[in-house]
TrEMBL record, chain A:
One of its GO terms (cellular component) is ATP-binding cassette (ABC) transporter complex, substrate-binding subunit-containing. It holds the Pfam family OB_MalK. This is Multiple sugar transport system ATP-binding protein. Gene3D superfamilies: 2.40.50.100, Nucleic acid-binding proteins, P-loop containing nucleotide triphosphate hydrolases.
Automatic annotation (TrEMBL), chain B:
Its main location: membrane. One of its GO terms (biological process) is transmembrane transport. InterPro entries: ABC_transporter_permease, MetI-like, MetI-like_sf. Residues 26-36 have a biased composition (Low complexity). PROSITE patterns: ABC_TM1. This is Multiple sugar transport system permease protein. It comes from Nocardioides lianchengensis.
From TrEMBL, chain C:
The keyword RNA-binding does not apply. Residues 1-34 form the signal peptide. InterPro entries: Bact_solute-bd_prot1, SBP. Gene3D superfamilies: Periplasmic binding protein-like II (3.40.190.10). The keyword Lipoprotein applies. It comes from Nocardioides lianchengensis. This is Multiple sugar transport system substrate-binding protein. Keywords: Cell membrane, Lipoprotein, Membrane, Palmitate, Signal, Sugar transport, Transport.
Automatic annotation (TrEMBL), chain D:
InterPro entries: MetI-like, MetI-like_sf. This is Multiple sugar transport system permease protein. Its main location: membrane. Keywords: Cell membrane, Membrane, Sugar transport, Transmembrane, Transmembrane helix, Transport. GO terms for cellular component: plasma membrane. Gene3D superfamilies: MetI-like. It comes from Nocardioides lianchengensis. SUPFAM superfamilies: MetI-like (SSF161098).
Length: 360, 333, 434, 275
């Protein structure tokens, strides 16, 4: 069993009063690709490093399978890690880099060579085995780092932003490669990134963290569809969800004098001021004369099939930014005003005071 | 679920394969035995783990040597400085040795000369700094100069002192050169007005290459785009140096200051000993030389120990003061 | 699983390495101790171990080889089983090294000393030799320099004195009679004026170490003091405010002002530069030595027949013309040595007539042994020097304490430098010499 | 930047003069070493008309510089080995490992930089004598190690602190022990610094006079630089012989400098910039 379990795992740096990771409860299933995501400083890397044994666990525990690894040194945890900067050993060749862990584990020379060869084939690194890391491109280095992890056949892969040093195009292609590789190897993986797109595309499940506190763990789609709170709602999705403060009145939300229909059950759960969350694609542009939220267009981003209209809506006197996805090539003009509305099912309702989701 | 092509995990019969659904954490399999034991022992973090002990072992030899051969002697010396010399050998004399020092004109001169060294410090830093700037600007022949300038650094101070003794003798080559350009010869080492400056000068000659190289390394780290920006802003050379290079080099300058100071306060003994022996008339004494003569020639080891303690305290004070000053100065800029 | 199996080996390997790190320094120290017992024997020295260590600054000199060999042979006859090691230390650091040895209570068994203050300051570390001396007391001369409070701490092997050497060729060039060196201060003044006219230095002088003034004091002193004053000075009755002492100091300043010396006196090293200048024919006179170095033998090498010598000139009425001389260098026995008698036997060999004869012949030292025949040296000035020895009196400067001498060195430079007045200098000296 | 054309040449002139001033003393010494003692006495500063190796041979043979050179080599190699091992061990620990008291220990060692040798000279020899190391090779090796260790630790620490911590974490995860990391990563990775610092320390040890003079009391243990300075005793006026010794003692140093210029200067700068 190589599920990974965080049980009230906490990391408090000496001299600090707020924990970097606060009582993290998280279970990662056997063979699962778990992505930890959040803005910088949210504790996602620390959580991963606690699992790897690079950070001390102040309280709580971490288990890999049925083993309590909370206080084990990294080498006894049977994990492999891919670092942001790859952390390749500069004085060793690619082959030596990949074989290092096996050598440390006392694996025989021949088996080492065989396993390195196998992993190299898997990652298309055959031609570079005798090179030093300095002589490799960024993408190749990244693959060597992956190879070094794979060769060990660990129980868990830990990956700390392994793609952030690649250029945008390579990042996208490597993303899918890693996901495919992980699926093929079936090794439980914990993957840290600050990029929510990466998280959404790669993770079986995604854990969103903020200020050391776990906000929500779920599949990417569930996170998108049912963000548990305002933070997740704003963080997941690109462009981000439109968040507009409003008042609830008889099953409707009123925003700047315009009515927006909301889910009844959600509305019933509300006790105070709320924030409405509407994905850009959930807005509909309505014609002149129909009631809708007026949006003054400031920018139109044409993507061909679609277009995003950025604008401001004068709500409560202060303009708030709104993004609306519209079909491509419709030709909304900068400076013009459009009116938008949406369906009640598409409106997420959040409690202003707690930030919590009100929809069921 | 896909099985890996890799290694032993693919063996269907391997109980260690964690991917067998519902696989019992079998106490019968080797890895689990291991994990079981580990798990039991790891509830609390053990006190003496490898990674906690080894750091101490790594620093142990260095710390041991420094303590045994520097700190212990220092404490012994401190103790010794309160005992007497000659007939009073070994007897406790309190602060007598320190009083003797206070009254000794030679020791006072030595302390005054330390002050002189501190005054010369900015010069000793500025010269290599300036030269490094020129080298950085690639004046013709800069490669050659860079090699040549460092060269005295590798020579023993004792040898340098002996050579300069001859070069700076009254009828020596230095004065012959002065004579040719119509300047009155100078008794470089025999006139108490000049002697200390001469020795300081030779010390700078002998060591500026070191600071120069450090400066050059600092220059190499200066962001070229900052220089370009300064140029496009129309800054002249002086402004560029003042507003771009110096702030960029603050760490290097700090380092050079500290190392040059340590060099001046601890490394001039060889030169002094050979070039002037403290003369003329005691004008070029430094505490180190004073300690040496009291210990040897004058056979007063306890007094020498007292002087050692004064020098040590002085080094501490100057060292700390300088670090603080530099920290403040670099923060302001 | 390989990883699992390897775990045990890994930690075993780790502990081995741990042990290696921990033990390495220890092993080094032990190795060091092992080596120490091999080589360090000399330091602990002593008769039982069959080895004696001698410290000096002479034995490395090629001219001292015959002397050392003769002394060794003499000693081996007496003690064939005892090995003798000579360690020639650099003179610059000799007394510092000795101080360190004394500090740590270990070091050589037999040590060479300069007579006077250097010895007197360290008698605590030396064995009184009076009980061992025997007939050496008669055979050798120059004991006073090695005595303190009526006890003898070293056996003299050379006599040291300071005559005036002069260059006859330069006297001739200056229109002076090369065979009639000055006998009074007035004549000397005339000599210097004449030599100045031919653009040479009257005297070569190196006062970098401040010892020029020592020589000045001891060589002009006899001509200034009355014999009574001289003896009183030696006896410890020194009046620094007397007109004669003041006169001596004023002469020092005056000679410099009158241009008797080469330029850069304070930066000229005595033993390296002063005598090189004289040998190179840059000056007419120099105050030299009779033993060791800067003596008749080394001057003869360059000047040959042009070398002349004269004793200090008479300055005042009642003054005397004599060459000061006393014990030069001598061997003492350290108090930590294991077998003092054995060590003295070595000193005895080092001062044997055979050995000293060799020292005289090769190194040109005027030996302390009065039985050595010096008539066949082939260097005419030696006869003069030896003939003056019977009337010689000890140096005025060697009776001063190390502290006072050190002050004298500094003041002599300050006097030349114009940084102190004669009166002030004498006041400081009077305060120091109590 | 704004210096081009003429002004660069104007600056180059004093720079070139300074370069001459830097090498002149050695050329001067070389000239003196070509003279006989007699020639020197008669004309101290003129150019020598003879060329020969007499003074070199004399210094080498009669003055025993050959033995001294061997002693220097032994002691220098021993000291450099200890310095590099202890220095890199401590440098690794101080720069990359976190342990209680690390800062205090580092300051202690760094503080020793501020203790001139003369300050501890007398008691130092007592300690050395008490452990029976006076006048032995290990004694001098230990003395040099103590003298130059603070500098070495400082440079190694600052060099190692530039190595990203992730590499060490990677090795930990790969199963290396801390000591294994030292052996397998820090030593090979530190090679450039070890070479530079090693050469610098070798120069320091080779050039030392003071410590060696006091530690090695017997003649056959003397090191080269002491042997050379002994050629210029107060009682010796054979300057050309001394000059010959100086040239010979400086020769290996010069060769090392010419060949390892870059490494030497790299070592000097290891502590000055933080990456």
């Amino acid at each position: 069993m190589t599920a990974v379990t965080y049980e009230k795992a906490q990391r408090l740096y000496p001299g600090s009063t707020t924990p970097a990771v606060d009582a993290l409860d998280l279970e990662i299933r056997d063979g699962e690709f778990m992505v930890l995501v959040g803005p910088s400083g949210c504790g996602k890397s620390t959580s991963l490093r606690m699992l790897a044994g690079l950070e001390e666990v102040t309280s709580g525990s971490i288990r890999i399978g049925d083993r309590d690894v909370t206080h084990l040194p990294p080498k006894d945890r049977d994990i492999a890690m891919v670092f942001q900067n790859y952390a390749l050993y500069p004085h060793m060749t690619v082959a030596e880099n990949m074989a290092f862990a096996l050598k440390m584990a006392g694996v025989g020379k021949e088996e080492r060579a065989a396993r390195v060869k196998e992993a190299a084939a898997l990652l298309d690194l055959d031609a570079y085995l005798d090179r030093k890391p300095k002589a490799l491109s960024g993408g190749q280095r990244q693959r060597v780092a992956m190879g070094r992890a794979i060769v060990r056949q660990p129980q868990v892969f830990c990956m700390d932003e392994p793609l952030s040093n690649l250029d945008a195009k390579l990042r996208v292609s490597t993303r899918t490669q890693i996901a495919a590789l992980q699926q093929r190897l079936g090794i439980t993986t914990v993957y840290v990134t600050h990029d929510q797109v990466e998280a959404m595309t790669m993770g079986d499940r995604v854990a969103v963290l903020k200020d050391g506190v776990l906000q929500q763990v779920d599949t990417p789609l569930a996170l998108y569809d049912k963000p548990a709170n305002l933070f997740v709602a704003g963080f997941i999705g690109s462009p981000a969800m439109n968040l507009i403060e409003g008042e609830l009145r008889e099953g409707h939300a009123v925003v700047g004098g315009h009515e927006i229909p909301v889910d009844r059950a959600a509305a019933a759960a509300a006790t105070g001021p709320v924030t409405l969350g509407v994905r850009p694609e959930a807005f509909r542009v309505v014609g002149e004369g129909q009631d809708g939220l007026p949006v003054k267009v400031t920018l139109v981003e044409e993507l061909g099939a679609d277009a995003y209209v950025y604008g401001t809506s004068g709500v409560e006197g202060t303009p708030s930014n709104v993004v609306v996805r519209v079909p491509g090539q419709v030709g909304h003009q900068k400076g013009s005003t459009i009116r938008v509305t949406t369906d009640p099912t598409a409106v997420h309702l959040f409690d202003n005071a707690t930030g919590r989701r009100l929809n069921p | 679920m896909n099985t890996s092509r890799l290694g032993t995990r693919t063996d269907a019969g391997d109980p260690g394969s964690a991917r067998v659904p519902g696989g019992t954490p079998g106490a019968t399999t080797p890895p689990s035995t291991r994990t079981g034991q580990r798990a039991a022992g790891s509830g609390r973090r053990p006190r003496w783990t490898e990674d906690r002990v080894v750091p101490y072992l790594l620093v142990l030899p260095a710390v041991l040597i420094v303590v045994l051969l520097r700190i212990v002697p220092l404490v012994m010396g401190a103790n010794f400085s309160f005992t007497g010399d000659g007939d009073a050998n070994g007897a406790w004399v309190g602060l007598d040795n320190y009083r003797t020092l206070w009254d000794d004109e030679v020791f006072r001169t030595a302390m005054k000369n330390v002050g002189l060294l501190l005054l010369a410090l900015p010069v000793a830093v500025a010269i290599p700094g300036l030269l490094a700037t020129f080298l950085f600007l690639k004046v013709p022949g800069y490669r050659l100069y860079r090699s040549v300038y460092f060269f005295p650094v590798v020579l023993s101070p004792v040898i340098i002192g002996a050579i300069f003794n001859v070069v700076l003798s009254f009828d020596g080559p230095a004065n012959q050169l002065l004579e040719k350009v119509g300047i009155e010869p100078i008794d470089w080492l025999g006139d108490s007005t000049y002697a200390m400056f001469t020795v300081i000068g030779v010390h700078i000659w002998a060591t500026f290459g070191m600071a120069l190289v450090i400066f050059m390394a600092g220059f190499a780290t200066v962001d070229q785009s900052l220089l370009d920006a300064a140029r496009s802003d129309g800054a002249n050379l002086r402004q560029t140096v003042w507003h771009v290079i110096i702030p960029e080099l603050s760490q290097t300058i700090q380092f050079v200051f500290v190392t040059t100071m340590i060099g001046m306060l601890t490394g001039m003994f060889g030169l002094l000993y050979i070039m002037t022996g403290g003369g003329p008339g005691g004008a070029t004494y430094l505490p180190e030389l004073y300690i040496w003569t009291q210990q040897g020639q004058m056979n007063r080891p306890a007094l020498a120990s007292a002087a050692s303690m004064v020098l040590f305290v002085l080094m501490l004070v100057v060292g700390f003061a300088q670090l603080r000053l530099l920290k403040r100065a670099t923060k302001e800029s | 699983m390989p990883a699992a199996l390897s775990n045990g080996t890994r930690s075993r390997r780790f502990s081995t390495r741990l042990a290696a790190v921990a033990i390495a320094p220890l092993v080094l120290t032990l190795a060091a101790c092992g080596a120490a017992s091999d080589d360090g024997g000399g330091s602990e020295g002593g008769g039982e171990s069959g080895k004696l260590v001698v410290w000096d600054w002479k034995s490395g000199d090629p001219t001292a080889k015959a002397y050392v060999d003769a002394a060794k042979a003499d000693f081996e006859k007496k003690h064939p089983d005892v090995e003798v090691e000579f360690v020639a230390q650099p003179f610059d650091n000799y007394y510092t090294l000795l101080g360190t040895a004394i500090e740590s209570g270990s070091g050589p068994d037999v040590v060479l000393f300069n007579g006077g203050a250097q010895l007197r300051d360290r008698v605590d570390a030396l064995v009184p030799l009076d009980d061992y001396l025997g007939d050496n007391e008669e055979r050798l001369a120059g004991w006073e320099a090695f005595q303190d409070a009526d006890q003898t701490y070293a056996v003299p092997i050379t006599l040291q004195g300071e005559p005036f050497y002069y260059n006859k060729k330069i006297y001739e060039e200056a229109g002076l009679d090369p065979e009639a060196p000055p006998t009074t201060y007035d004549e000397l003044t005339d000599v210097c004026e004449a030599i100045a006219k031919i653009d040479k230095d009257c005297f070569s002088l190196g006062n970098k170490e401040g010892i020029g003034m020592e020589f000045h004091l001891s060589t002009f002193g006899p001509g200034v003091f009355t014999p009574e004053q001289y003896d009183a000075w030696l006896a410890g009755d020194r009046d620094w405010s007397s007109p004669e002492v003041k006169q001596l100091f004023e002469m020092w300043v005056q000679q410099n002002e009158d241009g008797w010396f080469n330029d850069g006196v304070n930066s000229t090293a005595m033993f390296m530069d002063e005598f090189t200048k004289f040998q190179g024919g840059e000056s007419g006179n120099v105050v030299g030595l009779i033993s060791d170095v800067a003596h008749w033998k080394s001057f003869d090498e360059f000047l040959g027949d042009d070398l002349g010598v004269y004793p200090g000139p008479i300055v005042n009425e009642g003054g005397q013309s004599l060459m000061p001389a006393e014990g030069g260098i001598g061997y003492g026995v350290t108090e930590w040595t294991a077998d003092k008698e054995l060590a003295y036997d070595l000193v005895d060999s080092l001062s044997s007539t055979d050995a000293l004869t060799a020292f005289y012949a090769d190194a040109g030292a005027i030996a302390s042994d009065t039985t050595i025949d010096t008539s066949d040296s082939g260097i005419p000035v030696v006869a003069d020097i030896v003939s003056w020895l019977p009337e010689s009196k000890p140096n005025l400067h060697t009776v001063l304490s190390a502290d006072t001498l050190d002050l004298l060195h500094r003041l002599s430079q300050q006097l030349i430098d114009g940084k102190v007045t004669v009166d002030d200098a004498l006041a400081q000296l009077a305060a120091s010499d109590k | 930047m704004g210096t081009r054309g003429l002004s660069r040449w104007v600056i180059a002139i004093p720079m070139a003069l300074l370069a001459i001033a830097t090498i002149y003393p050695l050329l001067f010494t070389l000239n003196v070493s070509q003279k006989t003692r007699r020639e020197y006495v008669l004309d101290r500063f003129g150019l020598s008309n003879t060329f020969g190796l007499d003074n070199f041979v004399d210094a080498w043979q009669t003055s025993g510089l050959g033995t001294y050179a061997l002693n220097s080599t032994i002691v220098t190699l021993g000291s450099v080995a200890l310095l590099l091992v202890f220095g890199s061990m401590a440098g690794f620990a101080f720069s990359q490992l976190h342990f209680r008291g690390s800062k205090a220990a580092f300051l202690l060692i760094l503080g020793a930089l501020l203790v001139p040798f003369q300050v501890v000279m007398v008691p130092f020899f007592r300690v050395l004598g008490q452990i029976g190391l006076l006048d032995t090779y290990p004694g001098l090796v230990l003395a040099y190690t103590a003298q130059f260790l603070p500098f070495t630790v400082f440079l190694m620490t600052s060099y190692y602190s530039r190595i990203p911590g992730e590499i060490i974490e990677a090795a930990r995860i790969d199963g290396a022990s801390t000591f294994g990391i030292y052996l397998r990563l820090m030593l090979p990775l530190g090679r450039p610094a070890l070479v530079s610092v090693g050469i610098l320390n070798a120069l320091f040890c080779w050039n030392d006079v003071l410590i060696s003079l006091l530690t090695m009391q017997s003649a056959d243990h003397r090191t080269l630089m002491v042997g050379v300075t002994a050629l210029r005793g107060q009682y010796s006026d054979n300057i050309p012989l001394f000059a010959g010794g100086v040239v010979m003692a400086a020769l290996p140093v010069l060769v090392v400098y010419l060949f390892f210029q870059k490494q030497i200067t790299d070592g000097v700068t290891a502590g000055s910039t933080k990456g």
